[in-house]
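Input/output pair, single chain:
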Amino acid sequence: MAEAVADPRRRVVQEGLISKSLTAIAKIIQWLLLSLLFSIIIEWAGMVLWWPDEGINHSRTMLTNEISYLDNDFRRSVVTSDPAQFAKRFADNTYHYLFEVTRFVDFIHWVSPPPRQEEQGMRPTLHKIYRPVAEFVIAAMQVTQVFSVRLAILSLATPVFLLFSLVALVDGLVQRDLRRWGGGRESSFVYHYAKKAVLPLVVITWVTYLALPFSLHPTFIVIPFAALFAFAVAVTASTFKKYL
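Output:
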C-alpha cells in the first residue's frame, strides 16, 4: 500500500504556553502604541481645528485634570495605598525613560534657542525645521504623560473588572444550573458570541479611555464597560453547555 505523502501546506503548528504568552504581550503593546499614536494625532488635529487658542495648554490642562481626579476621588486602591502618587510616579518614570534617558529633552534644549547670526553648522538648519513644529512636539510629550496617567488609572481599575466578572460568573453558573435542571433550551449561538465579546470589551475600554482627546472622569468609562464586561461573562456562563 502506498504511503500517503503529507502536504507541507497543511502542516499544523501548535503554539506552546510561552509563545502564546509572548504573542499576547506583543498584541497588548501593539494596542497601547496605537492608542498613544492616535491620541497624539487627535491632539495635533485639535490644536489646528478645535482648540487653536489653547494650543499646548490643552494637553497640560488634561494632565492636571487627570491627576486631580485621583487626588479628589481615588484616595485608596487595592493595588496601592496612594493612587495619585502611583500615577504621578508612573508618568514621571515614563517621561524620564522616553525623553530624558534618550536625551530627547537635551536635544530640544539645544535646538530651541535662536542661532547667532554668525553661527554655522547643523543647529541653525535644525532650528528652522523645529521652530514651526515646536508646540506640536511639546504637546506630544505632554499627551504621552496624560497617556501614562490614564494607563496607571486603568491598572488601578482592574480589580473592578475582576469583581464584576466574579459576581457575573457566579450568577451565570446559577442560571446555567437552573436551565439544566429545568429543561431549558441550550443556545450555542448565544454562547459563542458572548464568549467572543468578553476580551474585546476590555480592549475597547482601554483604547477608548487612553485615546480620549478631552478629560473625563474615569468612572464614566470604567463602570459602564465593566458592567458590559460582566454581562458578557454572565451570558457566557449561563449559556454554557448543559453536560460536560
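The chain has one domain: 31-238. Residues 1-13 have pLDDT under 50 and may be disordered.
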